[in-house]
Write a structure and sequence with these properties.
5 helices; DNA polymerase, domain 1; about 30% helix; alpha+beta; binds FE2/S2 (inorganic) cluster; about 160 residues; 2 domains; Ubiquitin-like (UB roll); 5-stranded mixed β-sheet
Length: about 160
């Protein structure tokens, strides 16, 4: 099995890793770096639970090989920070508006929403729903998630 040296900057920390060519970024984050906030919810690239930011853009980390991310800056849910007792506005929005139930989809929802608000700080509800089309939730019915993101849009922070 061929192995490759990769360098990842994850949540601001540089990591030098030796990974199998077929190793997915999500497994590297979870198994090699212990960042288990990034979830695996499917094996069909549909659920979005594995969403992270790669060089600032949201990406499903189950669709990216670790070697493809060589040299990239990756942000996971553990890397978010903000003025709400350390939480970002999106994280606080989910807390304020009860945007989660079981929480399985939540890290992916929050990372996708963080990317959405970075590109569009004042989205309409329709734009929020379109922005989350790649993220599935089996619990909430989505309304509370939309409200959570609207809360975040109304309480922006400097890095959004
Ligand atoms: Fe479901 Fe990545 S784990 S899309
Ligand atoms: Fe349970 Fe979304 S809160 S899957």
């Amino acid at each position: 099995m061929s192995r490759h040296d990769v360098e990842l900057i994850v949540n601001g920390r540089r990591h030098e890793l030796r990974v199998q060519a077929r190793h997915l970024l999500v497994h590297t984050l979870r198994d090699e770096l212990g960042l288990t906030g990034t979830h695996v919810g499917c094996d069909t690239s549909n659920c979005g639970a594995c969403t992270v930011l790669i060089d600032g853009d949201s990406a499903k980390s189950c669709t990216v090989l670790a070697v493809q991310a060589d040299g990239a800056e990756v942000t996971t849910i553990e890397g978010l920070r903000g003025p709400y007792d350390g939480l970002s506005a999106v994280q606080e929005g989910f807390r304020q508006e009860h945007g989660l139930q079981c929480g399985y989809c939540t890290p992916g929802m929050i990372m996708a929403s963080t990317s959405l608000l970075a590109q569009n700080p004042s989205p309409t509800d329709r734009e929020i729903r379109q922005g989350l089309e790649g993220n599935l939730c089996r619990c909430t019915g989505y309304e509370m998630i939309v409200r959570s993101i609207r809360w975040a849009a109304e309480h922006p922070q400097p890095d959004q």
